[in-house]
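Ticket 4471: requesting a sanity check on a complex prediction with LQZAQKY5. Repro inputs:
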Amino acid sequence: MDSVIIVVSDTCASDPSKDATGPALQNVLQTNNNIVYVADDKKAIQSAVRHNAAKYALVVTAGGTGFSPRDTTPEAVYELIDRPAPGIVTAMLVESLKITPLAALARPVAGTIGHSLVITVPGSPKGAVENIQAVLPVLTHAIKLVSGESSRDLHSSAKSSADPATAQQTVVAAISTPTKLCPHHGHGKGLKFYGSAQRPRESPFPMISFEDAYKIVMDAAAEPTLRTDVALFNAVGRVIADDIHARVDVPQFRASIVDGYAVLHSDCPGILPLAEVVTASKDTIKLKPGTCVRITTGAPVPHGATAVIPVENTTVAEEKDGKEVAIKIHASGVGAGDNIREIGSDIAKGSCVLAKGTPISSLGGEVGLLASIGIPAVRVFEQPVVGVLSTGDELVSVDSQVCGSQVRDSNRPMLLAALNAAGIDPVDLGIAPDKEADLLRSLRYALSKVNVLITTGGVSMGELDLLKPAIEELGGQIHFGRVNMKPGKPITFATIGETLVFALPGNPASASVCYSLFVQPCIDKLRGHAYEHRHFSVAISRDVKLDTRPEFQRVHIKFSPDGPRTESTGFQRSSAISSMVGANALLCLPARTDDVQELKAGSHVPAILLNSL
Ligand SMILES: Nc1nc2c(c(=O)[nH]1)N[C@H]1C(S)=C(S)[C@@H](COP(=O)(O)OP(=O)(O)OC[C@H]3O[C@@H](n4cnc5c(N)ncnc54)[C@H](O)[C@@H]3O)O[C@H]1N2
Ligand code: MOO
Ligand SMILES: [Mg+2]
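Returned structure tokens:
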């Protein structure tokens, strides 16, 4: 997951089986990491590079570096680079020139984008491999420097890896070794990794209300500042970064709203000779007063015509050889402008069509509107890079056989899928064991990759619940570690450096509910959308027993002609993920009091609408 090869080629983008360069580069880099295919299109290349640079320590693009008109990789990458690396370029050119004078025609660029090193190499397998081999001896060193390690610590190791064979080994190590972003150390609650006898027997974290916890999360989420252009078909879920004004009128010409006859409205009713025929895509003609022009929906209304009469309000007055010669217009009271879409009447040139902060929905309205005014790529706010890490010795991946007390890691696929559906391309950080050193290594690695880290498990009172002390060990600040809610009581929210950390409870229904209530709104704010939970009130369809904690019960809301009705999704224990199946809302039940132990069927309770399919 630490390096990525982006193959830039129209051919390979439409048929990756034709690619030999990606596998050749995988071989020399000794990784089986992702190969991404992208067409020779500057915007598409930039989008792929930008996105992958946020996730990978090393991005190698192959192809599009020559002189043909569609070769735009160097220009695309150059515009994104924060700091150029001309030395890497020189090293590649010097070595390539020893092999062929044609290397003088290559136009490589290299440099850093954030914490990622980006290198462009030619598209041929041979050229690509030769170029990467030329820089292998310095690649490890470069990757570590770019990801934030001190150059002094690295100096000696760079010397020792000067031959390509050793270099190949060390590159592999560098792109898979966690790097440390956050050097500060424990100044929080003084949590430590305790032995079982010394661990606190009471949580040191105050139990705060859901409302207070929500406010803390949303206050910690900064408004976005970075902007990027995305193609319309990739824009769903993104948020408009700047007001968009129409640069054209829609329609750009006076267009007919119906299939019928263009006329001068004062000529109606009456019999009018048919002068011409216009269909959509024809040029605008001129109407001679006292005649009519047959016209189709959307076609340009002739100059001088003031109305279009639907075909249903006409008959043929005269025909010749099966063709219309004169038309009888029956319609009376025809007004100027009837059935004509005037220029700019749908969208006026200069008007603000989408305001900053508007989310682009999957319903098609925003995308369709932008397409209609000739905007193929839209400026949106950058999204945070979000990663998901499961923790627990007992966990095995979903495709494993389970034995004994092993448990399938269902939280990670669940959260990765939810993020995907929300338009985020998440980083899968795998499973970390409940061992201090391993957990710290996984967290450090995660911190080097993401802006928002979601972990599940290990936040409660067990001897292997190590997340809270680990966060403090890494210098993080825990903003809350217990919330008075069911499910989700031990949810923990922290910041480590700039990274927001949601340490969600391991119980699957708790993890899912906490994701919807806290993580999703936070991510939406980070990408520019002023998200608000959608509250409504609903009558419960059966008696509900109240818990000692305020409870978010998973329900399915059915919208019937008599209004919304609730149906429980079944057994509500927080280990039972089945309680989320079919859920489209959470009932917000109050905590039980001495006076009120249950709510009767028919009582109205507040609810929160979840994102549903
Ligand atoms: N003495 C106390 N015990 C517990 C308390 C408490 O206040 N005092 N809180 C309970 C509550 S409430 C919850 S919720 C859980 C939270 O547990 P943890 O976050 O510490 O999670 P684990 O102990 O690691 O695991 C709990 C449970 O969840 C399963 N799990 C974990 N990760 C996954 C995953 N990725 N996929 C599927 N299932 C997962 C794990 O196997 C356990 O069964 O603590 C209570 N205890
Ligand atoms: O708070 Mo826990 O999620 O109820 O089991
Ligand atoms: Mg636990």
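Notes from triage: The pocket of magnesium ion (ligand 3) is lined by residues 458, 460, 462, 465 (CB under 6 Å). Leaving this open until the requester confirms.
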